[in-house]
Amino acid sequence: MAITLNSGFKMPIIGLGVWRMEGKEIRDLIINAINIGYRHFDCAGGKKDFDFLVVGVDFLVSVVCLIMFYQSVSLPITRTKQKLGRHLQKHFEVGLSRGRIFSLPPRLLWNSDHGHVVEACKDSLKKLQLDYLDLYLVHFPVATKHTGVGETDSALDEDGVLEIDTTISLETTWHAMEDLISMGLVRSIGISNCDIFLTRDCLAYSKVKPAVNQIETHPYFQRDSLVKFCQKHGICVTAHTPLGGALANNEWFGTVSCLDDPVLTGLAKKYKKTVAQIVLRWGIQRNTAVIPKTSKLERLEENFLVSEFELTKEDMDVIKSMDRKYRTNQPAKFWGVDLYA
Hints:
By secondary structure, the protein is of the alpha/beta class. It has a domain at 243-329. 36% of the residues lie in helices and 10% in strands. The chain is built from twelve helices and nine strands. A five-stranded parallel sheet has the order 5-6-7-8-9, with helices on one face. A two-stranded antiparallel sheet has the order 1-2. Helix 1 packs parallel to helix 10 (297-304) and helix 8 (262-271) packs across helix 9. The longest helix is centred in the first third of the chain and has 16 residues, at 78-93. This is NADP-dependent oxidoreductase domain-containing protein. The chain crosses the membrane at residues 50-70. Keywords: Membrane, NADP, Oxidoreductase, Transmembrane, Transmembrane helix. GO terms for molecular function: oxidoreductase activity, acting on the CH-OH group of donors, NAD or NADP as acceptor. Substrate binds at residue 139.
């Protein structure tokens, strides 16, 4: 299943998050995921360089090979990009056309690169050894102190508060993103973590509409107005925390997941599915892309099989009534300022 972006290109509707995985675990996971059929991978928040693209997976067996790699938040990513680039070039040389690869850099446009959009994009292209990217997103709607092109450190002041650059507007950043289109460096551009008002503003000053808005959304944090607003204006919504973060967000932010909710467990029994499958199917039936995380092979397979059943309208309405307006991912813990306030 795929969603057609407003740029005309297609993006897989279900992907795999690999946050906090590393080493052999991640290599085996990616191999298994590709064999199952995954073509959309989200690496944002991972701890280590990811070497999974140099394990000899034969992408030529796929009818269409759509691969998306995201990386962010103060991570060592240069070696990852270079290995990805070498691997892609290897397969181009043996006959895999560039047009069958949907590429997104292992890092979205980071906060500190808002004033250096073209340089940051070219840096990604150089390390990936590609001529263009299919999709490039502004990771957070805030410009911060520049720490060097391609660097992902979040500069904090002496009080431990994020160093926000007040000289760079989001409009300036977006027009620089649009330049990437006219320069042929990128095919589609988008935003991430933007609310309805920032999305509205972007639409007002944009010459090229954002193709994607990647946000946290799940049954406890449905953001129905934002999702409907984006979809009404042709912007695809991708849920970067479709299961509410589960154990990871509990450890990092002290939040709870919707997966233990008795309503959802009841629906899982009704459909003879896992709770995660119910939640992912709900997200897909909202026409949002979902990128759940799992390290278990059986869960990997189960999550990918959500196309094999459908929730009734009545059960979709039941889940709709569960909204708590409850955000589980809160970078304020690290930045000392609540960007969502």
